[in-house]
Amino acid sequence: MDLFTGGHSGCRGCGAAIAMRQAMQALGPRTIMVIPASCMATIGGSGLKTAWNIPFYHSLFACAPAVASGVRAALEIRGIEGVKVVSWAGDAGTADIGFQALSGAAERNEDIIHVCYDNETYMNTGGQAGGTTPLSAWTPDTPAGKPTKPKDMPALMAAHRPEYLATASIAYPRDFIEKLKRAAEVKGFCYLHVLAPCHRGWGIREEETVEMARLAVECGLWILYEERQGRQRLTVVPEKRLPVREYILRQQRFRECREEDIEALQAEVDQRWQRMAAGAGGEELG
Amino acid sequence: MRELLNGNEAAAEAARLARIEVLASYPITPAAPVMERLTGFIAQGTLKARFIRVESDHSALAAAAGAALAGGRTLVVTNSQGIAYMSEVLYHVSGLRLPVVMAVVNRALAAPHSRFPDHGDAVAQEACGWIQLFCENNQEVLDTVIQAYRLAEDDRVRLPVMVNYESYIQSHTREVVEVPEEEIIDGFLPLNRRAALDVDNPRAINVVTGPDLYMDYKYRQDAALRGAAKVLAEVSGEYGRLTGRNWGGPVEGYRLQEAGHVLVTMGSLVSTCREAVDQLRAAGEPAGLLKIRAFRPFPVEEVREYLKGVKTVTVLDKNIVYGSGGALAREVRAALYGEPEAPPVFSYIAGLGGRDVTSADVCKIFGLTQEKRRAGAKPPAFEWYGLE
Ligand code: SF4
Fold it and tell me: Which of A46, A117, A123 to mutate to test the pocket of ligand 1 (most atoms within 8 A of CB)?
């Protein structure tokens, strides 16, 4: 049985919905899902209809990890075991308005999984810029291109020393599913950050959602890794890294991006990639 | 057992007797001792509960909502800035019909900064859909916290409850409090558990709701809140039979027999007014007191009934709704409007931010009303009493 079924009201080719359908394969039916304000919170149902076949609560924007903490506490005191409690938020509900509650839950090492599905814009309100929006990206409120760099959310969460942390991409479903399964086995706080493009915000065609998620990895902009006890491991290493230009020029949102911006980004990506590759060998993490 | 307890200790004892399962709170002055005492009980093993050490008041109520959605009996403790910060969550909890109980140690809202008592914090949330009960002393704090769970979990109600008592005047002042035996409370308070988030019975909660459904949800929510007044009277009656203490339903009268002139107030001013009424009666004045125990739901019918035939009503408000006046006076006037021979309502704002109001002050205010009545003056919209 599909746990997040077809018939939801997301756009065709929605990266968020793809991420959720992949995730539910890993998480299974004994999962309680808390999602704050976001596309994902609203496309799963309206009125008396729903696409959810698991318990789901659409929480307030700033507090999904706190709600999940409460759910876990009640289950524990009631002696109910074997249930995964997940707070699943967009980039705003994770990196911006939701960051305080997320940081608190991570520091308390709550036995929950937080998944950030990142489309790098506030799509549910029309695509405004937020904390993970890339430098020079066009949005309705950065018409000349976003003037500042995005937050490195996985690094921020790594600083909380979670039990398990991983990045993922909807173009690599097996990698994502394995990581979620690993998180589900871990007791304590886990953080996953999945790149889930939104064709409307990115200015691509709807059938290009997955392709763009793959390109982000192949050009080294989005690095797939996992981290336990401070040790990092790359989980996907592109055979040959493509130039970031190929990724940037495909997306309308980068129309204000100048040649020197692309060169600077390429230099940054090269540096980061070398650092990651040097530090994170390929061996399995225990 | 009789013990010397301050309001915070009384609230914590009540939560222990209610066998709360999840405590989610963020420290705030002067409410934090409630959670400190409860975490002590948890550490000693006298209370089997989970404490969620949240990073804010907003998350405190969010965590309590999560726990209640998963079927846990929960307590939150806060006041003033904390409850203002929680505001949007308050509306979620009532809209979801979750039986969360919250101790609110009423404290004035900034600015300017204050840690002293008034009801501004609770009154600012008057439309949030919670049952709002006010206590006059520490015994009532203990008894009301226990009753709050019965009320909140009653199938006819299913709504959250705030139990209000004032900072320092109550939170930090010790009184003799009778602490009931555990068996009595266990009998009075069986857990009526309803888990909305349940893997064996999956439901989608708080999905997008259009104009075809939203209003009907709200009608039911409001009807349940209004109906809670009757359930409170029932619950108090049963509690009274078990413990000998019945604090009444949503209102309670004091020396209202042949009282031509009635004081109306809530919270700690009630006990001050009791003394004042005794003094006024001793001086031959036909004074009485109507205590408002439930500010929400506001007991319109009861207020009409109790104030029938009365000549003047004097309302003391420990809050100010800027540009409008005292919240309680506004409610009393609205209840009486259109009643045959409705008495004039004189409204006084007093005791904000901890300014002391003694029984002598209450007698003085009572005198001010009488002067105006004798002069045939119409009651002003409201007046401030006790300005420097
Ligand atoms: S706007 Fe973007 S994220 Fe939202 S439903 Fe459509 S494709 Fe998905």
Answer: A123
Pocket of ligand 1 contains residue A84 by CB under 6 Å: no
CA–centroid distance for B190 within its chain? 23
Q: What is the ipTM of this complex?
A: 0.97
Strand (E) or helix (H) holding A228? strand A225-228
B239 by DSSP, 3-state: which?
helix
Dihedral pair phi/psi, residue A254, rounded to 5°: -95, 25
* B388–chain A Cβ distance below 8 A for any pair: no
Report whether B245 contacts B143 (CB < 8 A).
Answer: yes
Q: How far apart are CA B122 and CA B138, in angstroms?
A: 18
Question: Where do we find the tokens 């907003």?
Answer: B58
pLDDT band of A286, cuts 50, 70, 90: very low
* Per-residue model confidence as pLDDT tens digits over A110-160: 999 999 999 999 999 999 999 999 999 999 999 999 999 999 999 999 999
Contact: A66, B203; criterion CB under 8 Å: no
**pLDDT, tens digit (0-9, with 9 covering 90-100), for A40-87:** 999 998 989 999 999 999 999 999 999 999 999 999 999 999 999 999
Beta bridge partners of residue A34, listed in sequence order = A57, A87
Tell me which residues of chain B have a pLDDT lower than 50: none
Residue A10 in contact with ligand 1 by CB distance below 6 A: yes
A55, A62, A66: residue with CB nearest B199: A55
Helices and strands (H, E) in chain A, number of each type: 11, 10
> Per residue in B233-279, pLDDT tens?
999 999 999 999 999 999 999 999 999 999 999 999 999 999 999 99
Q: Is A204 in the pocket of ligand 1 (CB under 6 A)?
A: no
State phi, psi for B108 to the nearest 5 degrees: -60, 145
In degrees, to the nearest 5, what angle opens at C-alpha B347 toward C-alphas B345 and B352? 160
Enumerate the residues of chain B whose CB falls inside 8 A of the CB of residue A60.
62, 88-89, 92
Q: Chain A, 101-120: which have a CB under 8 Å from a chain B CB?
A: 101, 103-104, 107-108
For ligand 1, atom 7: residue with the closest CA = A14
Q: What is the rounded distance in angstroms from the CA atom of residue B8 to the CA atom of residue B202?
A: 39
Q: Whose structure tokens read 């592109």? A: A238
Residue of B19, B20, B22 to mutate, testing the A interface (most A Cβ within 10 Å of its Cβ): B22
Cα–Cα dist B218/B46, whole Å: 40
Residue B68 at interface with chain A, using a CB cutoff of 8 Å: yes
Confidence of residue A93 (pLDDT cuts 50, 70, 90): very high
| Nearest-CA residue for atom 3 of ligand 1 | A198
User: 3-class SS at A231?
Assistant: strand
The answer to whether A73 faces chain B, any CB pair under 8 Å, is yes
Region A258-286 average pLDDT: 82
Do you find a cis peptide bond into B297, omega within 30 degrees of 0?
yes
**pLDDT tens-digit readout, A147-163:** 999 999 999 999 999 99
Tokens coding B31:
């409410």
Q: Do the Cβ atoms of A47 and B213 come within 8 Å?
A: yes
Residue A283 has pLDDT above 60, yes or no: no
